[in-house]
Backbone:
């Protein structure tokens, strides 16, 4: 059946059963996947509040389920970031979130410049490296090759 809205208010869609056999997907992740398949169009994706309401879960559970779909490469990170935002991704420490904002403002940086700025901020080098590794692990440095190189 094609995706789409029928006249009687029901929605028809095709869903592969592989989502039910995917190792590592809990019931919330499966439900979020089904909601996205059913309600998402190229121009509109439901927001976290809508997903939570439709999936009969709270928003924190919906975000965790979305994170799990990203980790399993079922949902693209860019889409997750558009839906949830950086600051709702609780996998990231506040230090990593702050560093990501800095990365966006300064996409090109050299290691010695970063270490010099770190000494002025009161952050130690190890904390900055941990934050960079977090950002790299969760794919946030994919669009910042210089930062990714420093992280690795």
Residues:
């Amino acid at each position: 059946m094609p995706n789409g809205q029928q006249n009687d208010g029901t929605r028809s869609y095709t869903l592969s059963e592989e989502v039910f056999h995917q190792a590592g997907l809990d019931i919330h992740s499966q439900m979020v996947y089904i909601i996205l398949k059913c309600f998402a169009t190229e121009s509109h994706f439901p927001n976290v509040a809508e997903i939570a309401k439709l999936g009969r879960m709270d928003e924190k559970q919906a975000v965790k389920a979305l994170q799990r779909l990203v980790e399993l490469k079922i949902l693209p990170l860019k889409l997750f970031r558009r839906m949830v935002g950086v600051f709702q991704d609780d996998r990231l420490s506040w230090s990593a979130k702050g560093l990501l904002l800095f990365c966006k403002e300064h996409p090109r940086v050299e290691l010695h410049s970063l270490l010099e700025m770190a000494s002025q901020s009161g952050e130690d080098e190890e904390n900055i490296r941990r934050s960079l590794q977090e950002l790299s692990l969760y794919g946030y440095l994919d669009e910042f090759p210089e930062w990714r190189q420093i992280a690795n």
In short: The radius of gyration is 19 Å. The CA atoms of residues 47 and 81 lie 11 Å apart.
